[in-house]
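Example for tutorial group B:
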């Protein structure tokens, strides 16, 4: 079992600032808690509410004590949001150790029941942060009444930049020598991050399979592959790992076998299903990052909500080839859209055809009847696809992951990259969420992963 705390950039910035103060500083982290289908926990931090100066009974560089009124209001806010509360404080100094002292352990015993009671939650949690030249180091625990304490293993910080930290006291495995060239390019810390990331890929066709192979060769060792389709003969011209002998098998199985042949130590889960089913979409709660490589509009509606509700960055990919009446190729367009918490979703960007999405969710009989009556648009036929172009767009998508881990690009970072390969041009843009839409921070859905129904949408039976 693994426990991951996910923090959006506005919370991370406040914690880093507090960790650099000379005196210990305390507050309450408000977080949604999700237990994934595999039994892991994810803590989705929505906000941090700081203890007011007047509530400190004692505040020094190596200790503090707080009057109860310093955190009771925050507990009420957590209950109002249907969230849990974690007691947070700092251990100042770049040589400080963010491990609980004897005093900290006693404080946990004193306030744990109160935190659970006032928030109407089964859980109480703690987090300690200390500053470092490159940022912060953290430790934390999750405690359920009368059960053993669970350590928070990982801290995933998402925003314009993405950072993954193991808990301060965790053992870091040595890097495999096969990644020597990677380490020379971006250092051992990033290589360790790649090894720890759990990545989901929705759609295992031309772009999805190309992304998957690049990720494995970069060092990703935890993958979830989702695709409902079987391999067709025409797929073998562009799906990585495909051969004619495996036509008719599930795409996810073909790709799984190909990737594990490249990296025998790869942990690769597969699901031959569509994410338009709630049970399938819930498997993505285990992921730190999701690549969207599906052609359907309904699937993109689900992917659009993941970044908002689960604090899980999504990199959505699209390729469009256009031909004239004489079947001459005239347009090669690629799109890479990056959605982190607080970014505009695909609907706000007009990258989803809502009418087609609704039609895709109908049964074939319903769709045929409604199309004949003019109440539903006809679904498009088979679109053209070429391996050179799907691979180029896949590489651009993987580049966006690396840039957000490394930070080698310009700021502000674009949230969409448009490739016009026929014109040898690349452009970028940044879009803001529409006011009143679920992805806009004012709607308070950012990090609300435990809402019902899941992702705040209606699911097929």
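The residue assignment follows.
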């Amino acid at each position: 079992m693994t426990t991951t705390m996910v923090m959006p950039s506005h919370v991370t910035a406040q914690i880093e600032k507090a960790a650099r103060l000379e005196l210990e500083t305390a507050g309450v982290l408000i977080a949604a808690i999700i237990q994934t289908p595999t039994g892991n926990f994810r803590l989705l931090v929505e906000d941090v509410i700081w203890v007011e100066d007047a509530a400190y009974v004692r505040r020094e560089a190596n200790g503090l004590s707080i009057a109860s009124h310093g955190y009771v209001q925050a507990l009420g806010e957590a209950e109002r949001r249907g969230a849990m509360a974690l007691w947070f404080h700092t251990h100042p100094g770049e040589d400080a150790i963010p491990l609980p002292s004897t005093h900290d352990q006693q404080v946990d015993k004193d306030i744990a029941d109160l935190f659970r009671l006032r928030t109407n939650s089964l859980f109480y949690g703690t987090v300690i942060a200390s500053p470092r030249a490159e940022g912060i180091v953290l430790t934390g625990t999750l405690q359920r009444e009368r059960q053993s304490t669970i350590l928070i293993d990982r801290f995933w910080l998402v925003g314009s930049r993405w950072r993954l930290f193991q808990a301060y006291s965790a053992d870091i495995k040595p890097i495999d020598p096969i990644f020597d060239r990677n380490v020379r390019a971006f250092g051992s810390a990033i290589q360790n991050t790649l090894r720890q990331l759990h990545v989901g890929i929705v759609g295992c066709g031309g772009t999805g399979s190309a992304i998957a192979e690049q990720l494995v060769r970069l060092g990703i060792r935890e993958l979830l592959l989702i695709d409902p389709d079987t391999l067709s003969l025409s797929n073998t011209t562009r799906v990585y790992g495909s051969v004619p002998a495996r036509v008719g098998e599930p795409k996810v199985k073909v790709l799984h076998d190909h990737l594990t042949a490249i990296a025998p130590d790869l942990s690769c889960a597969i699901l031959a299903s569509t994410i338009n089913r709630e049970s399938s979409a819930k498997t993505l709660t285990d992921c730190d990052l999701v690549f969207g490589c599906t052609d359907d509009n309904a699937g993109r509606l689900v992917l659009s909500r993941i970044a908002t509700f689960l604090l899980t960055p999504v990199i959505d990919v699209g390729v469009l080839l256009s031909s004239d009446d004489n079947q001459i190729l005239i347009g090669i367009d690629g799109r890479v859209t990056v959605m982190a918490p607080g970014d505009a979703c695909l609907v706000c960007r007009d990258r989803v055809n809502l009418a087609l999405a609704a039609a895709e969710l109908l049964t074939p009989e319903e769709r045929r009847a409604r199309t004949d009556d003019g109440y539903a648009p006809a679904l498009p036929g088979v679109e053209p696809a070429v391996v050179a172009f799907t691979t180029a767009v896949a590489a651009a998508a993987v580049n966006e992951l690396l840039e957000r881990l490394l930070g080698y690009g310009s700021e502000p970072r674009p949230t969409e990259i448009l490739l016009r390969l026929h014109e040898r041009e690349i452009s970028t843009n940044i879009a803001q969420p529409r006011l009143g839409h679920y992805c806009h921070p004012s709607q308070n859905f950012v990090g609300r992963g435990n809402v019902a129904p899941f992702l705040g949408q209606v699911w097929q039976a």
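Residues 209 and 240 are 5 Å apart (CA to CA). Compare this with the pattern of hydrophobic and polar residues in the output above.
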